[in-house]
Design a protein that fits this description.
Chains A, B: Residues 190-315 form the Alcohol dehydrogenase-like C-terminal domain. The structure is a homodimer. By secondary structure, chain A is an alpha/beta fold. Chain A folds into two domains: 7-163 and 302-358, Medium-chain alcohol dehydrogenases, catalytic domain (Quinone Oxidoreductase, Chain A, domain 1, Alpha-Beta Complex), CATH 3.90.180.10; 165-298, Rossmann fold. Chain A is built from eleven helices and 18 strands. Chain A has helices at 47-53, 103-106, 155-158, 164-174, 190-201, 216-221, 258-262, 287-290, 304-317, 330-341, 354-358; strands spanning 7-12, 21-26, 35-45, 70-77, 89-92, 95-97, 117-118, 138-142, 147-148, 182-186, 205-210, 226-229, 243-248, 265-273, 282-284, 295-298, 323-327, 348-352. In chain A, helix 5 (190-201) links the parallel strand 10 (182-186) and strand 11 (205-210).
Chain lengths: 361, 361
């Protein structure tokens, strides 16, 4: 069996062996009226992929093919598709379904639809088929979650924008990042470096907040207006009540002195977390919020409209993701996941050379 | 020594004996150019008073006279006072000083000025004098924190608005409570009942969320559109993602299932705490915020502008605080504090009959 009946992809079969990828046949869901089949050309490697295959986020439907920062070519489109044309270069991110009928969906909050399904690891309610991600030959996705990639963006640089980029971009625009605002980006990894790039592109004064100074030079190259290292003594003191918005991309809550970070916020400033750390949470006290009336919250991906606006902004401003390319293969995936696990990536891996691995059909 | 050299008030001398009030002479700070001396007629009894005298909020400057929901008559005003005239009926709340020069002060966020001082228990930096509250004959207060009481409001009903009312009103208006919005008020005590009254007056659909149904009839009388009792099985399930704003007035975090409350919020809805519970905080997880991208925060009192707007709204809409009156005396204070400690008050005590206790001078 071959496409369009089956796809092929690298799956993890057991979280105990989360670096051992097997090339298996994948059974896609039936081709629907609004579906787009995409021949994949590149895929970013997201921390979600690691949390998922290693079991850090709990039980999953193994065997599983992860990857949700997908760029490829639209091969064919369903009879009711109007948003995508065959042959177009398109992207798919971390979400692949919502009802499109509820209040959330109608308000560009489809991310928060209670029927939302993830690009991989979700069970399609009608067929029981488990969705499979982009470490594979193809994806089949409803047009609403398929995004034309502007001509000015390179495939390998656009791919990580579809999850990491959007995850940073949406809370920036939803919380007013722009001229006259001071934004902090906590954690300079895949999402964090996009937070810096997009916050600057939106016109906000942007500071990076990291544990050490090791990434300061890179941050400055990306346009950071300032850099705080939390290992420095009294690092927060001179900057109290000066930030309007802080996007927290840290993926761990260990030894995290939240109160020190919150003290940076101006009155009613906001701390928005976009990471989903493994393990337990952290203690908060009403006192931590009282000196500035700040707010903490979280943000989950973003809307189709925001994806399109983000890609347009990236093209217009010439935003260049900082990626390291790794040709896709079982060995390449092992390298990528292992290095990601060791925080050894600046700042995102994009898997490439899909045709070499899988052929051109 | 008598007024204006000294005031008289009921002080607690030792938090171990927090119901034993002693009538002592109080030394006021020197009369400043912007100060107003007020002969007190009534004072609300705030949970802060209890937390303070009983040691629940930690070390205090004893002996201490508490009380910060003060209504009285302006006796004399300093040479630079323009906002208050002698003879006016005026109120004083929980804050009595800020610099009035910083960014926060200039943006109607004087509550968050780093130089802010409380009406009682604060040390005046220039003299070392400890500020004393309204269980007393007089207060001396900078005009910015002295508020004319509209003629349509009864003294005993206006008093508790000056802390409890404002504490509820400010986060309502700052977070958009009004027509078309659905607001929840958690906890129906002194602050909570004002939350309900003001949220309704602002035009929002307003629900009360309480542990049991014991206060449901009262809530309905005050205009509540709905009532949820968290002791009921699956109390939150039918109401998920329907609230825009929840004001949390609960003064305890024990057995508090925050995630269940947060599930009530619509996308980017806000949970604003105004209580300051004793003891430790509570654990939050990024997961608790992800299904709706909600925010949690806190609010501290409100601005002068908000006090004046609140009092105007209360007069216009005929808002009646639900108060129980207790004539001020050592015995009356013991009764009030003990009953408050036992949550046995519907919904606020106002201390009255000051002239009977202290005389008319």
């Amino acid at each position: 069996m071959v496409y369009p009946d089956t796809f092929k992809g690298f799956q993890i079969e057991d979280p105990k062996h989360w670096t051992e990828f097997k090339l298996n046949e994948l059974k896609p869901k039936p081709f629907g009226d609004y579906d787009v089949d995409i021949k994949i050309q590149a895929c970013g490697v997201c921390a979600s992929d690691l949390h998922t295959v290693s079991g850090g986020w709990g039980e999953q439907h193994f065997p599983l093919c992860v990857g949700h920062e997908i760029v490829g070519t639209a091969l064919r489109v369903g009879p009711k598709v109007t948003l995508i044309k065959p042959g177009e270069r398109v992207g798919v991110g971390a979400q692949s379904y919502s009802c499109l009928k509820c209040k959330q969906c109608k308000n560009d909050n489809e991310t928060y639809c209670v029927h939302q399904l993830d690009t991989y690891g979700a069970v399609w309610p009608d067929t029981g088929i488990v969705s499979q991600g982009g470490y594979s030959t193809h994806v089949r996705t409803h047009e609403h979650w398929v995004f034309p990639i502007p001509a000015g963006l390179a495939t390998n640089k656009a791919a990580p924008m579809l999850c990491a980029g959007l995850t940073a971009y949406s809370p920036l625009v939803r919380n007013g990042a722009g001229p006259g605002k001071k934004v902090g980006i906590v954690g300079m990894g895949g999402i964090g470096h996009f937070g810096l790039l997009f916050s600057k592109a939106l016109g906000a004064e942007t500071w990076v907040i990291s544990r050490t100074h090791s990434k300061e030079a890179d941050a400055k190259k990306m346009g950071a207006d300032g850099f705080l290292a939390t290992a420095d003594k009294d690092w927060n003191v001179p900057h109290k009540m000066t930030f309007d918005l802080i996007i927290n991309t840290a993926s761990s809550t260990e030894n995290f002195d939240l109160a020190a970070y919150l003290s940076l916020l101006d009155v009613h400033g906001r701390w928005i977390s976009v990471g989903l750390p493994e393990g337990s949470g952290q203690e908060v006290k009403a006192q931590d919020f009282l000196s500035n009336g700040c707010l903490i919250g979280a943000s989950h991906l973003g809307s189709r409209k925001e994806v399109l606006a983000m890609l347009k902004l990236a093209e217009e401003k010439g935003i260049e993701s900082w990626v390291e390319e790794i040709p896709i293969s079982a060995e390449g995936l092992k390298t990528a996941l292992t290095r990601l696990h060791n925080n050894n990536v600046r700042y995102r891996f994009t898997l490439t050379d899909y045709d070499k691995c899988f052929g051109t059909e």
